[in-house]
Design goal:
Number of helices: 2
Helix content: under 10%
Distance between the termini: 6 Å
Number of strands: 7
Length: 111
């Protein structure tokens, strides 16, 4: 399984990769939660229509630097973020614990 770290994480965070159109389209729909995070790539926007829980969303540039972070409640549609090439999704509150905030660069380790 892939992982990511930030300068503030004490250990690697589990990371699911959604790289096909089908897996990006499904995202976290139909789930009750996630251990770690889901990386949608390529992507520059997400929605929470049909979601069962609130999520944190981080828009990332090509180098995995965080452009913006926001929390989205179920039933919302996010606008596309200019320069975003990836979107990181996790349960609400997770990004703050991991130190994922604007300007931070994620170190992604793929399997």
């Amino acid at each position: 399984m892939a992982t990511f770290t930030t300068p503030e994480t004490s250990e690697p965070v589990p990371l699911e990769l959604a790289e096909s159109a089908r897996t990006r389209g499904r995202g976290l729909l139909g789930r009750d939660g996630i251990e770690g995070a889901l990386l949608l790539s390529p992507a520059n926007s997400v929605h929470t229509l049909g979601m069962r829980f609130a999520i944190d969303v981080a828009h990332l540039d090509r180098e995995f630097r965080v452009l913006a972070v926001r929390t989205m409640r179920p039933g919302r549609v996010g606008l596309p973020r200019p320069r975003a090439r990836h979107v990181l999704e996790a349960e609400a509150g997770s990004m703050e614990r991991w130190g994922v905030r604007r300007g931070v660069r994620l170190a992604v380790q793929a399997p």
